Amino acid sequence: MAVEVAKLGFHMNSFSHPPPPPPALTPFISPRKNHLSFFPKSFINKSSFGGRRRRNYLFSRRLSASLLEEQQQELSFTEPETKLIEALIGIQGRGRSASPQQLNDVEQAVKILEGQEGVFDPTNSSLIEGRWQLIFTTRPGTASPIQRTFVGVDTFSVFQEVYLRTDDPRVSNIVRFSDAIGELKVEAAASVKDGKRILFRFDKAAFSFSFLPFKVPYPVPFRLLGDEAKGWLDTTYLSQSGNIRISRGNKGTTFVLQKETEPRQRLLSAISTGVGITEAIDKLVTLNQSVAKEPELQVGKWQLIWSSQQETDSWFENAANGLMGTQIVKENGRLKFLVDILLGFRFSIDGNFVKSGDKTYDVTMDDAAILAGPFGVPMEMRSKFNLELLYTDAKIMITRGYNRILFVHLRVDNSETK
Fold first, then answer.
1. 66 pLDDT more than 70
2. Structural domain that includes position 124
3. Residue 207 · residue 215 · CB < 8 Å
């Protein structure tokens, strides 16, 4: 049965023998990071987690000279580019799990940028050269199984390398599984048709595993595919800074790529891969310290996506202390923690917060119940702790709460405040 192949912005029509799948992946919850990770089964040593001592991550807020320099040299974007990045923050799977509203916001931001004056004739500019990270892609019905498998997994990093000013012009698509595993690189010979369009023909691919001293060929019969191995990629917007690129493939897919990501994007990427999370938090908070206005808890519904310590108490105590589920910040100092249990049952606890300092709040949670639809069974529970608001904006909130644990929340809906 013919299987269609597509690599990021490059699509091939079909070939007779499907390529082998990547190494078998096993999901597990990391006890230190509280998020879903994926590794080959052979890489998981269950005994290595059993005796690992639990600990809190210490969070440093000291400014260093290097961070001050980075703050001064931090990436700058035009207003339309900023709107695109804001629309992309929080979208998982590079668009695979986007809601209709999120997709609409990205589509509108892309259209605005495509109507702006970016770099003229981008394929003739040196700014298009280099390694680009794939941030977002649409999902038309023509997307191949391989594209859906690799591109939609946040734990993988996906890149595109463009080198047109060499004796051997090439464009390569790279799926980086992890530092411990390695990567898959698919290469295409490239040529420039005009100021926007790159023509390509796939000609080789290989796995580079970190634990092997040689490359493993990716068995695709490129030479036998003829014209079916060909395609094109249009660059519809290239920023004047050379940091943002919007491209459209020959099968109608839209791609948003960046050379450098901003601090919030780097934090979300670190949480997805499980590498460098506290460092990314430290950098984001430190770079934000120059803002004169003190942060305030923002009304809205916030989903917990990471905490610096695994749940150590009973399930209900963890839920009452905000170590799982969603946090709903309401007006007039009201707060709710909400956790899905199963089969429509939910745990809920309400309370209040009172500002006690520039960035700190005293939190008391004391109205708990098990909910099933419109009905609820009250529970006797009470939790008190100090909450320090380290960073917040319209999309991300970073706090230090119960037992001085760090929390990262992502806004999922700012309308549910009842």
1. no
2. 79-261
3. yes
